[in-house]
Amino acid sequence: MNEGWEFAKSYMTWFVTNMFGEAQPHLHFYALSFVTLASAIGVVIARNLVHAAMLLALCFVAVAGIFVLLNAEFLAAVQVLVYAGGVVTLIIFAIMLSENITGKQAIVHNRQSVTALGISVIMAVVMVAILLYDQSGYFVGPTRWALPPERNDFPATANTLLIGRSLMSTYTLAFWIASIILTIAMIGALILAKAEKARKEIPSKLSSLTSAIFPEPEDEDAKLTSDFMTPADEGQMEDTE
Amino acid sequence: MTYQPIPVPIHFYIYLATLLFAIGIFGCLSRRNAIAILMSLELMFNACNIILVAFCQRWGITFTLQSFSRAQDIESPVGQIYAVFVITIAAAEAAVGLALVIAAYRHYKSINMDDINILKW
Questions:
Q1: Residue B32: its chain A contacts at CB < 8 A?
Q2: Cβ atoms of residues B38 and A115 within 8 Å
Q3: Contact state of A182 with B78 under an 8 Å Cβ cutoff
Q4: From the CA of A156, how many Å to the nearest CA of chain B?
Q5: Which domains does chain B have, with CATH numbers?
Q6: What is the pLDDT of residue A155?
Q7: Average pLDDT per consecutive 10 residues, chain A (241 residues; last block may be shorter)
Q8: Helix or strand or coil: residue B67?
Q9: What is residue B94's predicted lDDT score, i.e. its pLDDT?
Q10: Dist CA A81 CA A92 (whole Å)
Q11: ipTM of the complex
Q12: What is the DSSP string of A88-116?
């Protein structure tokens, strides 16, 4: 624990000198991560759901900026397009369809919120401790996560080119499965979101479609009896039996 | 002297993703509204994406890409491809989850998760 405290103190000193000294490395990272975490906390504690959705969009855009810092430009574009463009729009539509926006909920958290806070804090502490301590419990600090000197400048990434090539060669099967999953999810979402009445009509429509494609073979005997037998004949047969 | 930006150490990204994931878990466990729970899930997906891309940046394979007349060192984008798939699945999950929320709202007239307790023991 003492090493941990020493490390925290040196970290604070380092942080203050870097933030308020002349050189300010990683300032872009600090700004982006501050926006990310602040808007994420806002998403979790906002009373108005529309505000939460807007903060979620802000969080997604900040995460896209972090992807740019990590040389993942294609992923940043996808993040803005799919998340900030698509998913947030979907969420806002769901809010408008399901909740009365003007009536805000008085209590947004359930009774287990203290337990939930404890669980999340414990998870964060454990995950950081796994990074900072080795297997036998000795404090090693984040030095093993530091970049080796030969990798200190990242080589260039022809990002989109490489991702497209890999998707079409090495990961083709995963790409197909992802597209099939998207199709299935789209159909499933449509059927789930349909009104109850419309959903009950689907089986009958499907059966009419299948009967149009595969017409049922006509029962020859039944056709013969219905054509050539009068009701009187049927009565006679019953009598004889 | 050319300006050489100092790369951000990789453990900063790990701390950021850890905090984001913890915030997402807190929201997922404690919010009452179903749509808010889905939003917290999206936060957790984003934390996973940050971790994937950062680890790919740190331990990714570097190989040489031979173009027509030049060769350049290139990082293998495996983690980014995984992140693309995560985004795909997250989009599908959001669509299905919100459709489920709307169906549940139509049935229960509420999307409060405390009211939807028909499967409770």
A1: 105, 107-110
A2: no
A3: no
A4: 6
A5: 10-108 (1.10.287.3510)
A6: 53
A7: 73 67 71 94 90 94 91 89 91 82 64 89 89 76 61 59 85 93 92 73 70 67 55 55 50
A8: coil
A9: 92
A10: 16
A11: 0.88
A12: HHHHHHHHHHHS-SSS--S--B-TTHHHH
The token pair that represents B49 in the structure block: 């994406």
Q: Write out the H or E segment, with its range, that includes residue B71.
A: strand B71-75
Instruction: State pTM to two decimals.
Output: 0.76
CA A170 to chain centre: 24
Name the nearest CA neighbour of B73 among B82, B83, B62.
B62
User: If we measure between CA atoms, which residue out of B79, B76, B11 comes closest to residue A155?
Assistant: B76
Q: Which of residues 45-74 of B touch A (CB under 8 A)?
A: 46, 49-50, 53-54, 57-58, 62, 65, 72-74
Q: A239: distance to nearest CA of chain B, Å?
A: 55
For the stretch B23-81, pLDDT in tens is: 999 999 998 888 999 999 999 999 999 999 988 877 777 777 676 777 766 677 888 89
